[in-house]
Amino acid sequence: xxxxxxxxxxxxxxxxxxxxxxxxxxxxxxxxxxxxxxxxxxxxxxxxxxxxxxxxxxxxxxxxxxxxxxxxxxxxxxxxxxxxxxxxxxxxxxxxxxxxxxxxxxxxxxxxxxxxxxxxxxxxxxxxxxxxxxxxxxxxxxxxxxxxxxxxxxxxxxxxxxxxxxxxxxxxxxxxxxxxxxxxxxxxxxxxxxxxxxxxxxxxxxxxxxxxxxxxxxxxxxxxxxxxxxxxxxxxxxxxxxxxxxxxxxxxxxxxxxxxxxxxxxxxxxxxxxxxxxxxxxxxxxxxxxxxxxxxxxxxxxxxxxxxxxxxxxxxxxxxxxxxxxxxxxxxxxxxxxxxxxxxxxxxxxxxxxxxxxxxxxxxxxxxxxxxxxxxxxxxxxxxxxxxxxxxxxxxxxxxxxxxxxxxxxxxxxxxxxxxxxxxxxxxxxxxxxxxxxxxxxxxxxx
Length: 447
Prior knowledge:
The protein is of the alpha/beta class. It has helices at residues 6-16, 32-49, 62-73, 87-96, 106-112, 145-158, 176-188, 205-209, 218-226, 246-254, 315-321, 361-372, 396-408, 436-446; strands at 21-25, 28-31, 53-58, 77-82, 101-103, 126-130, 140-144, 166-169, 192-195, 213-216, 236-239, 258-265, 270-274, 284-285, 290-293, 298-302, 310-311, 322-323, 326-335, 341-346, 350-352, 358-360, 377-382, 385-391, 418-422.
């Protein structure tokens, strides 16, 4: 069913299926009526506190879900913060988004409270998600409970769940794919959502919750398949937020699972296209969306019900990508003879790894150039990992050794996995910018 707000969704589900299970976390289950009661009670408390912008250090627990719905009902601007980020980064994000109150683990809150700001005006309904993992480039995308509810309906119109389904949410709710496809998708269909108990339980959550559906990023899909963490009741896997190797999708389908692949962006409140049957990479456009291609193959999206309001306090950045209601994604695609969308690459200066992690390339490559004292280089994906394209000759071991101090400061997924030497100059535009999609294509063809 299509809902206009979180409040409408919770009220409808509590009325039509009051005793049906809504949320499970470990051994505790809340029915839809119990969930609504808990949210209403917490919303009343938040209204009394007279705050305006809540930073949610989301841990994926029942209490965190209650808090996010309650903050919305209480009229607060909600800022979805990744609690795994370092405290300096979190302080920067808190100041940027005018957070005046925090929810989360007490010790972490204490470390961050000095960063609290004076709050906002007219923030009711707004929910902010961040697009990037780097402090300098992080942008908060302004979504709303309305746009997120529309996105959940938009996806479920193509890939519905039923009240008999059990959706396992293993993804962080601070990311829009996890929020929509791990939580709202299930709740809006009246299904029970089981909240994953963290990375240490990846091996046993499927066996514990016995889900019929699960949303995953490609890296997590690979882990679950490798460890054989697939329960007999599981029938549907939704994969998104990054490129997925064909062998992973084949391995899942060989187990008799229905595998769907989704494409979307934070700016569109998550998915705009999803595969329904046959080739997982051939995606049908969701009902509320219109996708066209620019002359160079860039994917252009009109999503009036799901589109962001803009980047928080960054009008220039908003205008750069959202023009006359059309989002210029920087992604490349094509349509097949049946009108289904295929993603062919990315032309924007960002790499998206298989776990959804993003590398902002200008910043990353600048650090590589300074460390190596070499200007003609670029970073691409090879085998799902960052590879350094080095124009000139040299020894890969020597280059990696020189990079070692820099790589130690990077998360493991962002570390250079391979050095590729080339005698050819990097392909560039007339203005000197690297044609990343062309360079990526050459690397894929030579692999």
